[in-house]
Design goal:
This protein is α/β, with parallel strands linked by helices. Helices cover 21% and strands 26% of the residues. A hairpin with a 2-residue loop joins β9 and β10.
Length: 317
């Protein structure tokens, strides 16, 4: 008997026929398994959601009233003819890889992941499988990250220099994950103030038990000149930042590795929540998978690279 593939690729997203669910679907579906709470993975409109317990509070905050359930990491759930479980991805707090098994055949969907532990979110754990579906956001050899501690020291130095000159430091970072990683890891130089979008998520994560330093929501009150302000990237250059003048602006992102992304910025820090080129390759090797599908990034060159390394490689269509 010819069996259907364990996972298939459809216009709505990755689909499991034997479990009748989708993984990180980007169109409305009856049942969605979601790797984490970023908006390009957790979409509105599904009838039901399943994610990790740690991811659920942020997903509820972002999506509103939804039918959703959270599972602990590593706990198996039978759905139809398959067993599913969630395993740490190291991307942001609560993020997961999703393992799907049927009659001994195992596929793993990585979601977004990074292999360097950051001390805040649950560290990436490679999961042995036959087929690995991996992101490749930074799937080119030019993307090779410096150690996190070095980047955080550079940010601390920039913050200290600005404070000595009487300028507030505005650091742009994504409001979920990167912002909290920064506030938890930068050596203290003064008070940390946050944009409301950042503080909303920070309060949720702090209530879950993630270890985060004291922060102050910006809501019209004066901000000290020696403060670090963490805000979403869209505030750079707009009216929201004007009351904080004089200030110095910086941006922390893996994309700062590209010169073209640095225009108009006073300070840039290459710090990513995704695996770099060595991290992607190390993660794939650790799964011991023989077949690899790539998605979310430099899919064509990364697929060709994997084929040259002997993998049966394809692209999630």
């Amino acid at each position: 008997m010819i069996r259907t593939p364990l996972l298939t690729f459809t216009p709505r997203g990755i689909y499991c026929p034997d479990g009748d669910f989708y993984i990180d679907p980007h169109r409305a579906v009856p049942r969605a398994l979601v790797t984490h709470g970023h908006s390009d993975h957790a979409y509105r409109g599904h009838d039901s959601y399943l994610c990790t317990q740690a991811a659920l509070p942020v997903i509820r905050h972002r999506l509103g009233r939804i039918a959703a359930e959270g599972l602990p990491y590593g706990q198996s759930r039978q759905i139809g003819a398959v067993a599913v479980s969630f395993h740490p991805a190291g991307h942001v707090p609560g993020s997961a890889q999703i393992r799907v098994e049927r009659a001994g055949e195992v596929w793993v969907v990585s979601g977004d992941y990074k292999t360097e532990a950051d001390g805040l979110c649950e560290a990436f754990i490679p999961i042995r499988c036959h087929t690995f579906i991996t992101e490749c956001t930074f799937g080119l050899p030019i993307f090779q990250w410096q150690p996190e501690a070095e980047i955080l020291q550079r940010i601390a130095g920039w913050w200290a220099r600005n404070a000595a000159q009487g300028r507030i430091s505005i650091l742009a970072a994504y409001s979920f994950g990167k912002a909290q990683r920064l506030m938890a890891g930068i050596p203290p130089q003064g008070p940390i103030h946050t944009h409301p979008a950042v503080e909303d998520v920070t309060e949720i994560l702090r209530a879950q038990g993630y270890q985060l330093p004291p922060t102050h929501r910006i809501s019209g009150q004066p901000v000290p000149r020696d403060a670090l302000v963490i805000a979403p990237p869209n505030v750079l250059g707009n009216d929201w930042a004007h009351p904080l003048t004089p200030y110095s602006s910086g941006f922390a992102s893996g994309w700062m590795a590209l010169t073209a992304r640095r225009k108009g910025l006073e300070a840039v820090f290459t710090l990513s929540d995704h695996a770099d080129w060595p991290g992607l390759n190390a993660a794939i090797r650790a799964t011991e998978a023989t077949r690899v599908f790539v998605t979310h990034g430099y899919t064509q060159p990364f697929r060709r690279w994997l084929e040259s390394q002997g993998y049966d490689a394809g692209i999630v269509q």
